[in-house]
Every structure is written in structure tokens, then in C-alpha cells.
Amino acid sequence: MIKSILIAIIGLGVLFSVQAAVAEEELPLPEGKNIKEWESISAALVAEKRFSEAIIYLDKILEQEPDNLKALTNKAGLLAQLGNFSKSLSLSNKVLDIEPDRISALTNKAIALKMLGEYEKSYQIFTKILTIDPDNEKVKKSRAILLSGTPTISTNESEYLIHVMVTIRDENKNLVAVAESSNARYLPSQYTEMIWKKLDKDGRIKHLEGIEMYTETQKMNFLYEPPHYLGLITMDRNQSEHLISIFEVFLPMIEVADTETATAQWTIIKK
Known about the structure:
Serine Threonine Protein Phosphatase 5, Tetratricopeptide repeat; 4-stranded antiparallel sheet; alpha+beta; 48% helix; 5-stranded antiparallel sheet; elongated; 2 domains
């Protein structure tokens, strides 16, 4: 009996050792003798998502040709995949010092800046790409995603003053409630400035004694089943199927019945 138990324990030990060896085993790297072969090997490793190993072959290329723009750009992209955004940004800048309009390097730079929290700089790079390639739908979508995810900031000590008044009426248009707030935030971006300039161009901005004023009436649409609650009012724009909040106002939470309607009256002043 004891002998049988010992044999079982030894067997488990051997099995565990084999499993551990298999888990630690690394796939052998292919060999290459010149830049063309190293490029092919790196591309094959990328296809297998073996990014760190692909970089080994890009480094071989860069040892021979330190300014090889393709290798530098590909390495920057792989470093971004691996989460090393600072190094990725540095390599992209090196490429762009040599070729300022290289779209692949600009794209890598925009992504790295976004992941480093430099949202506005990332927006500017995506915008630059679109001046070079206006029909680049992938970049348009990436820029829209960036804007939709860019944090808004308080209008306190900014050039904007925002006031919203919400009016709620019943099915007979009788007044039910009124709520007002100036607790506002805005998108700190050139995109906001672009929207404001477009409103001005369309004649929707009033110029009064050194200030600019915009007003808009917004009917609230509820997407979900009742009960409905209002606590945040946003002024959005749709870009590449993504909603971008340009202005936001926080209200005391209000419940709106299914038979009631809510209307928001915006007043935005730019000093």
C-alpha cells in the first residue's frame, strides 16, 4: 500500500516537472541574414502577436541602418501595443524629424499621446493627418473616439459662462417644474473653438458689448423606459457615429413622468 502511494507521488512529481518544463519553453526564433529577411521575420512574428520578439529583428535592422524609417515606425507601433507609450512617442518623433508628413508615424504619435493623457495634442495630430489625407475614414473615427473620451473641465475661471433652465410641463402643457443651473463643464479643445466659430459664421452668435452669446432651446428625448430622470444636460455633436459632449450642465435630479415633456433653454456667454 505504502509502495503504491510512493509510486503515485513520484508519478505526480514527474508529471508536474514535465508540465512546468513545457510552460517555460520558449518558441525558437527564426534566423535571418539581411535586412529583407529580418523584415519578413518581424512581419511574421507580428502576425502571431509576438510583438517583443518582432522588435528583436527590427533592432537588428536598426543596428545596420539607424535611420531606417520603416523599422523605426514599426517599432514605435509595436511599443505602443506593448504599452510603452513614452518610448513609442520618442521613436515617432525621430521619424517625423526626418519625414514630417509620414502618416503611419503621425498615427503612432497620436495614439501614444492619447494614451499618455495628452488629448489635445493627440487631436491636433489626428487633424494634421486629415489635412494630408482628408478621406482617411479610420483616422476620422479615431479622432471622434478621442474627442468623445476627452474629459471635460469646469467652466470656472474659463472664458465661458453657461446657464441652463429646464422647464417641465404635463400633457396639457401646464407647468410642473422649473430647474436652473450654472454648474457647467466644457470640452477644452480646438474642436470646441471650431464649433463656436461655425455658429458665429451661421449668424447664431450675438455680439454684445465685448461678449459673445449663444442661445438654444433643446427638447429632452428619453431613450429608456420610464421613470425618467434629468441630472445632466449635454450639448453634443455627432462625428463619425460618436457623440462628443461640448458643453455639460449638472442639475438637481428631477424625475419626469412619461406623460410630461422637458425643455432645456441654454444660454452660453463667451467673454
